[in-house]
Amino acid sequence: MAACEPQEGPRLTPTIANHFIQDPTKVLGHDTTEYGLSVFTMQFAAVRPRDLDVFKTVLMSADRRQRAAIGLGLARATIFCRLADSAVSERIQKWVVGLPMHDVVTAYQQALSLSDDTDTYQPVGMDAPKLEDRFGAGLDLMPKPGPTGVGNLEIPDPTRLPGD
Question: For the chain, where are the alpha helices, taking DSSP H only?
Fold first, then answer.
């Protein structure tokens, strides 16, 4: 595994990267979503930063949304690689800034500006949100559960027979 290899999405294998270099515009196929293109761009830029020029061919054939997705992917690679391999991060940033395509550079810069560096390197917590955080004081409208029921409702003791 490379020093700066994102784990999001399907793994970018050397074979996939080489196929992309041989036929770069194929990545713009009809079944490629903007998200998929962004993830692919992030992975490729992080793992093969010396081959970024292949994206110039792709960008010439890409529509506006695809160019924005590529800009986002490049920004995500830059952010991801800052700690893992700062040289890769700097190489990506210099390459993007030198592009003549304003919309790609703008998408890249916007994605970077939306990134909060303080949280970029923190592990992502996968705990479910607390109900109180999600609904706030609205939960106070419901009676709190107690050991024998909720509010004024009593839950019968299943160990007692009726009439005991």
Answer: 14-22, 34-47, 54-61, 64-84, 86-97, 102-114, 117-120, 131-135
Tokens of 154: 């009593």
Q: For the chain, what percent of residues have pLDDT higher than 70?
A: 66
Instruction: Tell me how far apart the alpha carbons of residues 39 and 33 are, in angstroms, rounded to a whole number.
Output: 10
What end-to-end distance do the CA atoms of the chain give, in Å? Answer: 70
CA angle, 23 as apex, 111 and 78 as ends, to 5°? Answer: 20
Query: In the prediction, which pLDDT does 139 show?
Result: 46
2 located within any domain:
no
User: HSE (CB half, 13 Å, CA atoms) of 10?
Assistant: 8
Q: What is the mean pLDDT of the chain?
A: 77
Residue 9 within any structural domain of the chain: no
- Six-digit token string for 132: 């109180």
Q: Is residue 112 domain-resident?
A: yes
Structural domain count of the chain? 1
Question: What is residue 129's predicted lDDT score, i.e. its pLDDT?
Answer: 43
User: Which structural domain, as residue segments, surrounds residue 97?
Assistant: 14-124
Query: Does this model's pTM top 0.85?
Result: no
